[in-house]
Design brief:
This protein is mainly alpha-helical. The protein has 3 domains: about 80 residues, N-terminal domain of TfIIb (Single Sheet), CATH 2.20.25.10; about 90 residues, Cyclin-like (Cyclin A, domain 1); about 110 residues, Orthogonal Bundle (Cyclin A, domain 1). The protein has 14 helices and 3 strands. It has a 3-stranded antiparallel sheet with strand order 1-2-3, with no helix packed on it. Helix 4 crosses helix 5, helix 5 packs across helix 7 and helix 10 crosses helix 12. The structure holds zinc ion (ZN). Zinc ion (ZN) binds next to loops. This is Transcription initiation factor IIB. Its main location: nucleus. General factor that plays a major role in the activation of eukaryotic genes transcribed by RNA polymerase II.
C-alpha cells in the first residue's frame, strides 16, 4: 500500500475495493458434504448430477451435450447434429418441427413417410413465402445485387405480407417494388427499367406499387442521382476511369448551374457520358448509350443539346489539359446537336 494515503482513507479504499470485487463465479457445491472444490459427476446414462464424495443426487435432469457420432466435415451431407440451423426470422414460427429423415436402408419407406409428413405438417403460408424468398434471391443474384439488398427486399416483402400493405397487387408486382425500394435504401442505383426487365412487371405497375409502399412504410429513400448511375453505365460502355471521373465532374457542374434541371437522373447521366466520350476522343454512339442506360436516343440528344450550348461554362478546357490523359482535347471534337 502506498504510504502517502492516510490510514482511515486507506481502510475505506480497501472496503470499497472489496465491495466491487465480489466473486461473481457461481460454483456448484454439494450442500451435504460441502467439499471444495466439489467432485461432481455427470451420469449421462441416468441423466443425473451426482456428488462424487457422498453420492447425493444434485440434479436429475441434465442434457447430454456430447455427440454420439463422428463427423467428417466434407465427407457426407449434413451434420447430424440434433439442433438445426438458427431460426430464420423471415419465416413464421420457430421452425422447431421434427422432420422424418429421407434416408433409410434403401427401402424407400422413409422417403414416402417424409413426403406424407411434409404435405401434412408444413404451413402452407411458410412454403409459399419460402418460394418467394428463393425467387427474390435468384433475381437479385442475376443482376448482381448484394446479399444486403436481397435480405432487405425479403424483409420488406415480409412486412407487406404481414401487415397486408398492398392489397390486390400481384405478388410479382410486390416483389418488384420490394427489390426497387431495397435498392434505394441500400443506395444501389437501379432504374425502374432494369427492375422491369428483371421481373417482367410493367414499369407503370412497379412505379405505382413503389409509391404506395413508400407511403405506407413512411421510409425515406434516397433519391437516385446521376453520379451513382455513372460508374455502372461507364463500365458497361467500357469507358476508362478518367472518363468516368470527368463525367461525374460534368454532372456536378451541370447541377450547380442548373443546366439540366427537370431532366431525369438517367438521361442526365447518359447525356454527360455522350459529351465526355466525344471530348476525349473515345466516342460512344447515342445508340450504345441508350442501350445501356435504358432511355431513348431522342432523350439523350435533347439533354445533350442543353449541355452543348453551355459547354464553355460547364467545362474548363485549360484545366483539363493539365491531365496527362487529355492533353489535346478541344470542343471541336464534339458533334453538333
Ligand atoms: Zn456430497
Amino acid at each position: 500500500m502506498s504510504p502517502q494515503i492516510p490510514f482511515p482513507l486507506r481502510e475505506k479504499k480497501a472496503e470499497e475495493q472489496q465491495r466491487f470485487q465480489q466473486n461473481l463465479n457461481v460454483a456448484l457445491v454439494c450442500p451435504d458434504c460441502r467439499v471444495k472444490p466439489p467432485h461432481i459427476v455427470e451420469e449421462f446414462a441416468s441423466g443425473d448430477l451426482v456428488c462424487g464424495d457422498c453420492g447425493l443426487v444434485l440434479g436429475d435432469r441434465i442434457i447430454d451435450t456430447r455427440s454420439e457420432w463422428r463427423t467428417f466435415a466434407n465427407d457426407e451431407g449434413d451434420d447430424p447434429s440434433r439442433v438445426g440451423a438458427a431460426a430464420n426470422p423471415l419465416l413464421d414460427g420457430d421452425q422447431l418441427d421434427t422432420i422424418i429423415s429421407r434416408k433409410d436402408g434403401g427401402t424407400g419407406i422413409a422417403k414416402t413417410l417424409n413426403k406424407v409428413q411434409g404435405k401434412q405438417l408444413l404451413h402452407k403460408g411458410d412454403r409459399n413465402i419460402a418460394a418467394i424468398y428463393k425467387e427474390i434471391t435468384a433475381m437479385c443474384d442475376s443482376i448482381s445485387l448484394s446479399k444486403l439488398v436481397s435480405d432487405t427486399a425479403k424483409q420488406l416483402y415480409k412486412r407487406v405480407e404481414d401487415e397486408k400493405l398492398l392489397r390486390g397487387k400481384s405478388s410479382d408486382a410486390i416483389i418488384a417494388a420490394c427489390i426497387c425500394i431495397a435498392c434505394r435504401q441500400e443506395r444501389v442505383a437501379r432504374t425502374f427499367r432494369e427492375i422491369c426487365a428483371l421481373t417482367r412487371v410493367p414499369k407503370k405497375e412497379i412505379g405505382r406499387c413503389c409509391n404506395a409502399l413508400k407511403a405506407k412504410l413512411q421510409t425515406s429513400t434516397s433519391v437516385m442521382n446521376s453520379e451513382d448511375l455513372m460508374s455502372r453505365f461507364c463500365s458497361n460502355l467500357q469507358l476508362p476511369n478518367y472518363i468516368h471521373k470527368s463525367c461525374v465532374d460534368l454532372v456536378r457542374r451541370a447541377k450547380e448551374l442548373g443546366t439540366l434541371a427537370g431532366k431525369s437522373p438517367i438521361s442526365v447521366a447518359a447525356a454527360c457520358i455522350y459529351l465526355v466520350s466525344y471530348l476525349f476522343k473515345n466516342p460512344r454512339s447515342t445508340k450504345d448509350i441508350a442501350n445501356v442506360a435504358g432511355v431513348s436516343e431522342a432523350t439523350i440528344k435533347a439533354a445533350y443539346k442543353s449541355l452543348y450550348t453551355e459547354k464553355e461554362k460547364l467545362i474548363d478546357i485549360n484545366v483539363m489539359k493539365d491531365n496527362p490523359n487529355c492533353e489535346n482535347i478541344s470542343f471541336d471534337d464534339l458533334v453538333l446537336p
